[in-house]
Amino acid sequence: KQRQKCVLKALKEFGRIKDFTDICDENIRAYDEFAKKRCKCQSSVYNYHKILKVFVREAYAAHLISENPYQNFKLDRGKRVARKFLTKEELAKLETKQIDDMCLNRVRDLFLFCCYTGLAYADLAIFNFKDAIMTDGMYRIRDERIKTGTPYNISLMDKVMNILKKYEFKLPVISNQKYNSYLKILGAFCEIKKKLTSHVARHTFASHLANAGTPLYMVAKLLGDKSLDMVHRVYTNTERTELIEAMKKLGA
Fold this sequence. Notes:
This protein has helices spanning 2-14, 25-38, 42-61, 88-96, 102-117, 121-125, 158-166, 176-189, 198-211, 216-223, 226-231, 237-251, and strands at 133-135, 138-144, 151-156. The protein starts with a helix and ends with a helix. A hairpin with a 6-residue loop joins strand 2 (138-144) and strand 3 (151-156). It is built from 12 helices and 3 strands; from the N terminus they run ααααααβββαααααα. The protein has a 3-stranded antiparallel sheet with strand order 1-2-3. It is mainly alpha-helical.
């Protein structure tokens, strides 16, 4: 929603697209130049187009405009920023740090929970242990990601179960805004230079699985990653056993 508001503000400043009739090749290219002057990096310019493109596509489908100018306009994504994740040493530092503050301790547990499961914070907020099923000696959760609707499939290893037991299997979830504020404090307190975010937790989970030799499509299945999941839609019983072994390695 905030990104949409940002693009709406930019369109008002641009001034040449006020109605659907203003959406044409010339104005889209002019909007691109405007965004380049306004943004610090190409990835931000791409996001300006990405959000507008959704509404342009819907307008075209609803016959509000005669053509979609984005069909002939190639978007430049810019350089991809390397995904940040915690190393084993950084994760261990976070796990073992003595924290007396109750609120900060809870945030640490929530962050570690995401590092151990790969869940995004929105999915963590609705996590319900009652939905877990016991298979092959481990509790498992199968659900769909709130953001993408993509199925994910995770096993709850010992470290996850210990956190759940600490809170009688009901996680002390707080608002996303407060969570992110506390993560800044947590990172500084544990002397971790990287900015702690929900994405860092997910990438930590994925990177540690990949480093343990888990095939990427299995990581995608666990994370509910849409792009890789489309390539590898189905996995066999043998692959399920490999997934369980990968989760055991992660929990070791």
